[in-house]
Structures are given as C-alpha cells and as structure tokens.
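testing teh design pipeline on a random one, pls ignore if ur not involved
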C-alpha cells in the first residue's frame, strides 16, 4: 500500500517518519518545508513536486496542515490532490479544522468517488516523535477499519468518534480541556509562588493527586524553566479555540472558560508571543505580577 503525506511541519514530519520506520511506502510533498522533505527522502520516502503528483501514486493520502483553507487548497487548489486521486482512494485529514469544513470537504470528495476520514491528533511534538499520539476519528466504520492499522503506527490511541466531522468536534473538546488546564496550572503556580511556596514543591505535591494531569506533567516544568520552545504554538491554539467559538455559536453552547483563555492567548499574541508553546500562558500572569515563575 502506497501512502501520501502532505504537510511536514512540527507534527507532520515526525508522523511521516514513523510511517517510513513502520515500512510504509511513502510519497511526500511540502513546498514550505523542503528540508523536511529531504529528511524523509534520506529515510527512504519518495519526494513529489506537487500535491497532485503525490495523489497519483497513492491509495491513502494524509493531509497535516494548519487549518481549513489549507486543507481545501491542498486538495482542490492549483495542482491539488483530489482530482489526481483514483476512485476509492482515502483522504485521511489529520489537520485540526472546523468540523463544518470537514463535512464540506467530504461532500466534494464523495462526488469524486473518494472516501474521507477526519482524524485530528493530540499530544504535541513529543508524542508525534515517539508515536504515541491520540487520534480522534470521524467517518464510516468500514473505512476506519482500513486506516486504523496505519494510524496505530503514529499513535497509541485511535478512537472512532462518529461520522465525518466527529473527529474534529472531539478535537475541539480536547483543545478546551488542554487550554483551560494550562491556564489553571499557570494561575495556581503563580499564586503559590506569590504566597511564598516554591512552584516545584507545589508541582511535586499535587501532581499525584486529583489535580494531576498529562497537561500538568508536560507544561509545569516548561513554565518553571521559562522554556517556551513550541511543541504546540499559541497561534495554533488560538485557531482551534476560534473554531470552538464558531461551533458553539452554531449550536448555542456556553463556553465562558474557553472565551477567557482565548482572550489571554490573544493578549500574548499581541505581545509577540504567538510562536511560543502554549505553556507560555504563564507569561500572561507574569505580565500581571511582574515576576517570573521559577524553580
């Protein structure tokens, strides 16, 4: 089985590498990441000049790009992949996009005899590298069974959440929990430090209890180190939370916590921190207190 991979950014490159390591015959393209393409070729992948060139050669096409317009451009734009795919091919969109857009894209692909699954991921760059991502998948059960073995080479959790778009609905829910959790960790550790307790002691004391979480374990050390090298950038989390806002408006669902954290992230973006990891939410509190979190 030949697999195509479009989008070799922070997440896409390690995901594609894991497929090559697993023995898949991979065809890759990313005009914005030529160095990443060269890395994959050195591992045994084949490079293609355009998205259409990728599509002509493969049975399953994975897209891993920033947002809805980028997915549509990759598939339906100039030298787009969709028209070059054979009937019965599968598009596996691992991008985190608006579920409404997933359903629109699927409708267009259906007209062309092409199947689609939306399969956004959670776990950031570290889990993309070690192949332990969580995949939230939407689409037909019979197509899910075909792509599940492929996804299991990149992730440790692969769950079918419902029909097309359900993967991205679930990802939006995930992004709410992650964003609010990071903000809560930053707020709590800032309070603790200001009250005279070392943040590291707070972290050690509470991580094994009910407050403990994968988010806390990953992000609290980064906050104390003032290390905001992006595993998942603030500007991408803003994109996801804006998609939450759009979905909530459509279904009249209350999202007061999401709105609050989104505003905090927008302030950081205004301050030039949009390229930082989302653990930089602690900078919002540092701006208010005038002191840095530390060990």
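output:
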């Amino acid at each position: 089985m030949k697999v195509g991979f479009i989008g070799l950014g922070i997440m896409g490159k390690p995901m594609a590498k894991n497929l090559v390591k697993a023995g898949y015959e991979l065809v890759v393209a990313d005009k914005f990441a030529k160095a990443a393409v060269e890395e994959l070729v050195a591992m045994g992948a084949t490079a293609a000049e355009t998205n259409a060139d990728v599509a002509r050669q493969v049975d399953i096409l994975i897209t891993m790009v920033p947002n809805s317009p980028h997915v549509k451009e990759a598939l339906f734009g100039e030298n787009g992949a969709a028209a070059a795919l054979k009937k019965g091919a599968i598009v596996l969109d691992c991008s985190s996009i608006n579920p409404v857009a997933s359903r629109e894209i699927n409708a267009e692909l259906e007209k062309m005899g092409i199947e689609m699954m939306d399969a956004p991921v959670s776990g950031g760059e570290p889990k993309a590298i070690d192949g332990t991502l969580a995949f939230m998948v939407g689409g037909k059960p019979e197509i899910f069974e075909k792509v599940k073995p492929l996804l299991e080479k990149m992730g440790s959790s692969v769950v079918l959440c419902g029909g097309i778009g359900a993967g991205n609905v679930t990802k939006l829910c995930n992004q709410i929990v992650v964003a609010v959790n990071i903000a809560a960790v930053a707020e709590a550790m800032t309070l603790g430090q200001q009250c005279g307790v070392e943040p590291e002691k707070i972290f050690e004391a509470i991580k094994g209890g009910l407050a403990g979480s994968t988010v806390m374990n990953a992000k609290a050390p980064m906050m104390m180190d003032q290390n905001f090298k992006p595993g998942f950038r603030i500007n991408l989390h803003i994109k996801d939370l804006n998609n939450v806002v759009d979905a909530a408006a459509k279904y009249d669902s209350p999202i007061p916590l999401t709105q609050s954290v989104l505003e905090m992230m927008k302030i950081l973006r205004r301050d030039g921190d949009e390229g930082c990891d989302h653990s930089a939410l602690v900078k919002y509190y540092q701006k208010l207190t005038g002191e840095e979190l530390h060990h």
